[in-house]
Amino acid sequence: MKIDFDNKQMDLLNKIGFPFSLSEDLSDDDILLIDEKVSEYFQLNGIDNDRVNDIGLVCESIIDCIS
User: Fold this and answer.
1) CA quadruple 54, 58, 64, 67: dihedral positive or negative?
2) What confidence tens digit (pLDDT) does each residue in 4-54 have?
3) What is the pLDDT of residue 53?
4) N or C end of the chain: which has fewer CB within 10 A?
5) Are the beta carbons of 12 and 55 closer than 8 angstroms?
6) Contact call for residues 1 and 53 (beta carbons, < 8 A)
7) Measured between alpha carbons, how far is 55 from 19 in angstroms, rounded to an integer?
8) d(CA 12, CA 55)
9) Any residues with CB less than 8 A from the CB of 17 and at least 6 apart, and which?
């Protein structure tokens, strides 16, 4: 499955880092790894003072895209 991530999403995904190309067809395993890593990144960086911050909003948008 090919997913067209926007620039903010791609910047964050590239920052996290993946062992495959995000601009090509993604396998189910690739999508599961994205979900796992983005969810973890969200937990560590996406919340300030019990509120979702800008990073968290991008993480949420990525998770929405792959769902």
Assistant:
1) negative
2) 999 999 999 999 999 999 999 999 999 999 999 999 999 999 999 999 999
3) 98
4) C
5) yes
6) no
7) 22
8) 8
9) none
